Amino acid sequence: MSGAATDSPWAPFAARVFRALWIAQLVSNIGSWMQTVGAQWLLVGDSAALVTLVQTAAGLPVVLLALPSGVIADRFDRRSVLVTAQFAMLAVSGVLAVLAFLDALSPTVLLLLTFLLGCGTALMGPAWQAIQPELVERERLGQAAALGAVNMNLARAVGPALGGAVVAAAGAGWVFAFNAASYLGIAAVLLLWRRPATAAAPPARHEGLMAALYAGRRYVWNAPGVRRVLLRTLLFIPGGAALWALLPLTASRSLGLGSGGYGLLLAAVGAGAVGGAFLLPRARRLLGANGILAVGALVFAGVLTVLATVHVPGLVALALLPAGLAWIAVLSTLNAAVQTRLPGWVRARGLAVYLLVFQGGQALAAPLWGAVADWLGLSAALLIAGGAMLLSAASVRRWPLREAEGINPTSSDHWPVPPLVFEPGEADGPVLVSVVYRVPVERRAEFTDRMHRVARSRRRTGALSWGLYQDGHDPERFVENYLVSSWAEHRAQHHVRLTATDRRFEEEARALLTPGIAPEVTHAFDTSGGPAVLP
């Protein structure tokens, strides 16, 4: 395929399964937005805090379940996880529709069922994100992430307006019923997908729940590039959440609109996002990832200011168009950044942490903005949120995203099989791995500096502790020691967890060794009988 075709924002549509899932997801997202409008409008006559709790009820499960969902997606077949989530959400939406038709849907029950739907979303989120590299090539993950945002925002352009019209004409029960049926499309495509056999058995299946959770946390903590993506997400989401949390109140209280008018405002955001998809490739070339983050936050600050000060529906709708563009630009940039930095063995868990920050941040920020609106007024809350977005834009210079060109998360099985005289059990441990290096005196400082990157690699892939020691009797002799909790963990380092980037870090450090003297590796097993102590 030509370079121009590869750079096209629509290039991922060449993959048949990605295209089918995108269409099915669009229908499902339209149903979700119809339901959101129906749920929020049933509560719009109550306090601002109660209205914003709809967003909290939908997003809070991510805070509670994102990490366990990531473990599930790394341990079990991801397609099965996704299909299970679809049918579970279909059942909950069906109950929601029946209760609405019977006029038996109290605010408490509505929020509880919305929370259960959020649990389904939390379960499928890491698995959905983790299968994207199976659907499109790595170099197209940015376009795929943008198309995912287009999907959500196209649904936002159609779903709220359609939902508002249906609520006004026939009641909220019908939007809940449509949402229930919309899950069938994704389930059908997933069940018909002929997934490669090599992708059906995630490599983390041997890990226990707590060990897998710890491995995911350990990887993210020792991956500076991933941590920086999470920081940028955390700095953008709280201010951005104010728009979604307070827009229904802006529509009803500030602009005097009904459910249909509120739906049209959300449609304006969605239309801006869809239009923004055409501009994203050029924006990336002109601004780069960090420029998009800064400009996107500035645009959001301006839109929130307009919402706080302008009371003409047409002007507000016009101002919401660039909000949609900024939203898709920032989120697709962050999503692609985290996707390209995670290896397959921990991808779902790393993405679970990202979703925890992203969706959990929205869930926790929404009631805070509602409380501020009740306390200081709606306009003041919107202006404060705009100020938060200005701070987010200003912080890009201090904490920019790091370039990803040097990161290659492809698996690398470059360590030789350990030449042991006995075969330890999988649970045997802890294991002390020692590597002896010979380094010329004039290269000691540079070698030590390069080994710090090797240290992060060891910790990412399983080391509980790490140290580099210089022999007091022989200054050219260095000993690297790191402790792994079990033999199974160390075997996973050998055959699953190391990446091409880890290999490069090792090769750069070993290039400084005394020529002709290879490192000596030994493996020692604990004989004291005590278990490994996790930090």
Explain the overall architecture:
- The structure is a single chain.
- By secondary structure, the chain is mostly helical.
- It has two domains: 8-395, MFS general substrate transporter like domains (Growth Hormone, Chain: A, Up-down Bundle), CATH 1.20.1250.20; 431-525, Alpha-Beta Plaits (2-Layer Sandwich), CATH 3.30.70.100.
- The chain has 17 helices and four strands.
- A four-stranded antiparallel beta sheet has the order 2-3-1-4.
- A hairpin with a 6-residue loop joins strand 2 (463-470) and strand 3 (477-484).
- Helix 2 (16-43) runs parallel beside helix 7 (141-170), helix 10 packs antiparallel against helix 14 and helix 11 crosses helix 12.
- The two termini are 49 Å apart.
- Residues 1-5 and 531-535 have low confidence and may be disordered.
- Keywords: Cell membrane, Membrane, Transmembrane, Transmembrane helix, Transport.
- It is found in: Cell membrane.
- This is MFS transporter.
